[in-house]
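Thread: Newbie trying to understand structure tokens

Hi all, I'm a second-year student working on a class project, and my supervisor (Dr. K.) asked me to get a predicted structure for one chain before our next meeting. I've only ever worked with sequences, so writing a 3D structure as a token string is new to me. If someone could post the tokens and maybe explain what I'm looking at, I'd be very grateful. Here's the chain:
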Amino acid sequence: MTHVFHPTLLREYDIRGVVGDTLSAADARAIGRSFGTLIARAGGKRVAVGYDGRLSSPMLEAAVVEGLNAAGVDALRVGLGPTPMLYYAASTEEVDGGIQVTGSHNPPDYNGFKMVFEGRPFFGADIQRIGELAAAGDWESGDGTAQSIDIVDAYVDRLVEGFAGGAFRIGWDAGNGAAGTVIEKLAARLPGEHHLLFTQIDGHFPNHHPDPTVEANLADLRKLVAEKSLDFGVAFDGDGDRIGAIDGEGRVIWGDQLLQIYAAAVLKEMPGATVIADVKASQALFDRVAELGGKPLMWKTGHSLIKAKMKETGSPLAGEMSGHIFFADRYYGYDDAPYAAVRLIEAATKLGKSVTTLRGDMAPMVNTPELRFQVDEARKFAIVDEVLDRLAASGATVDRTDGARVRTEDGWWLLRASNTQDVLVARAEAKDEAALARLVAAIDDQLARSGVARGESVGH
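---
Reply by user tm_fold:
Sure, no problem. This is what the structure looks like when written as tokens:
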């Protein structure tokens, strides 16, 4: 027996496809069996499995469990919940790995899988290995068992364990995503006054798309915060591993700005610690970490890559522009948006300032949103290489951590290839609009020289 996946299914950080087109129950079974085979060959026996609120998730979860069991591996089913709840199960239960069925923040017809292998992120070559085992039919065989447990309350208990924050008036927007039930239970456990939006888990996403990094999706939260004069608001993506936030004046607090707030609180307790952020993060963040006495470290974009770098450097805190925030300080080092919300309350308390003041204190920078350009998949990495070659020839100041990040008198610009889609991603940041326009012109010029017209920016 062998199984061949659609070529677009196995991605860099996770497995993702369109249900009924590039992703089926047969694919999920084969993924479970390949993953189970790798677990068994590493001496493991049991895997935690969870799923998000998408309409196709229960079907895919059942198929994954069948696949694990067919490889002789037992499944510990933790049921419906956010991805960090599955990570929590994988960190605390007697299991050798974990699989979350999730489409993250993609459109409703998408779904996929995020995995943990013996406590480490499972990505890149690991994911390609799933495909190789399936294509060769190189699978273990056996009769694994499946057991279901309810872990929601234990997870919420852990989110508030040792809580040292004050009482605030907060808006919470779960976006009908998988964190809804957790947010209801969490808010009930915290001091202060809490106003909740869209906590009913609904894979149709009837109110707005569950991606808090797109400003349009924060409109309902902004309205709530304004109407009730709340201190701040938090929002969650479809599977609860990314956080969005706005202050009391309705200003967005982007991922790298949240990280400035968290860094100030963490570095009080852990002076000199390394704080990691991805190449899309503001220069203001790296400067602020240094100013606070921490060690700023710029790393590649991608939750799996950041987690691996944290382990390697012993960093207590990391984050991505996209709202993945990772706490290894008093926590497990994975990206957990409900926990990040708890830590925002604690940070404001510890720093003795409102979230609005903390946001207002930041150096004003003007930047572009993430600009995304559709390119031919076969060309995307080549274009970045061409740009790097031209920049090297021109003597520009370039950081090659992940694509090209170029510093000039005006500020900086970034061009990198997305690992998950056939797009190039660009971003620029400067002190004023005129400088920003010059940076964007430099990006356009480089793209044009490689035969790409910027055109309309495409969404996620």
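A couple of things are worth pointing out once you decode it. The two ends are 36 Å apart (CA to CA). The chain has three domains: 15-151, 170-360, 366-449. Feel free to ask follow-ups in this thread.
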